[in-house]
Design brief:
This protein has 176 residues and is mainly β. The chain has a single domain, classed as Jelly Rolls. It contains 1 helix and 11 strands. The strands form 3 sheets. Strands 1-8-5-11-2 form a 5-stranded antiparallel β-sheet, covered by helices on one side. Strands 4-9-6-7 form a 4-stranded antiparallel β-sheet, with no helix packed on it. A hairpin with a 2-residue loop joins strand 6 and strand 7. The longest helix has 21 residues. It starts with 11 loop residues before the first strand and ends in an 8-residue tail after the last strand. The relative contact order is 0.29.
C-alpha cells in the first residue's frame, strides 16, 4: 500500500501526519515486500524469520544507532554493504534521537541506483522526529544497500532506520 502511487515520486511523510492504522499498514507493507522478495528468489517465506532491523544488520559496529560525520556540508556513506546470502532487508521509516541533529538529507541506493532522496531536516520540528517513506524500500541477497547522509556539521547523529530483516529461521531468532 503506497501512499503515493506515481512511480516518479520520492516522498516521505512526517509520522505525526499518519494515523495508527496508516503506520501499521506501512509496516505490514514492508513485511509483504520482504516476503515477495524472498519468493522472487525462488525461496519460501515460511523458511525465514522476520525481525526488527538492528544497527549491526546495517554494518554498524554495535547495536547503537549512531553515526559520526567527519566533515560539514558534505555527503557521507552511513551504510554501504552487500546484503548477505539468504538475507532480505526492508526500510520503511527514519527517526533521529539526537538532541542537536545534523543530518538534513538522506539518499537510499540499491547499488548505484538512487531509490529515494528525502529531506529529513523538517522532521526535527515534530514532537516525534520520525519520517515514514511513502513506500518501503527492499534489498535482497547480493544487493548493495547504500544510505548516504548529508550533514550541516561534523558531528554525531543518532539516526534510526526503522525496518525489518528476514533471515533463515534459527540464524538469529527461532520461531515456533
Amino acid at each position: 500500500m503506497a501512499f503515493v502511487t506515481e512511480s516518479y515520486r520520492s516522498v516521505s511523510i512526517p509520522s505525526a501526519e499518519l494515523s495508527v492504522d496508516e503506520y501499521r499498514a506501512i509496516r505490514q507493507e514492508a513485511v509483504r515486500k520482504i516476503e515477495d522478495a524472498i519468493k522472487a528468489k525462488g525461496k519460501s517465506p515460511a523458511d525465514y524469520a522476520i525481525r526488527d532491523l538492528q544497527p549491526t544488520d546495517l554494518g554498524f559496529s554495535n547495536d547503537v544507532w549512531k553515526y559520526t560525520y567527519s566533515a560539514a556540508t558534505t555527503e557521507e556513506n552511513i551504510v554501504n554493504m552487500t546484503i548477505g546470502d539468504d538475507t532480505f532487508i526492508a526500510i520503511y521509516a527514519v527517526a533521529n534521537r539526537s538532541t542537536n541533529p545534523v543530518t538534513t538529507r538522506l539518499t537510499f541506493y540499491k547499488g548505484t541506483i538512487p531509490l529515494k532522496k528525502i529531506n529529513v531536516e523538517d522532521m526535527y520540528v515534530e514532537d516525534v522526529p520520525k519520517k515514514v517513506l511513502d513506500e518501503p524500500l527492499v534489498w535482497s541477497e547480493s544487493d548493495i544497500l547504500k544510505i548516504v547522509g548529508y550533514a550541516e556539521s561534523a558531528s554525531t547523529d543518532r539516526l534510526i532506520f526503522k525496518g525489518f530483516i528476514a533471515e533463515p529461521k534459527g540464524k538469529t531468532v527461532s520461531t515456533r
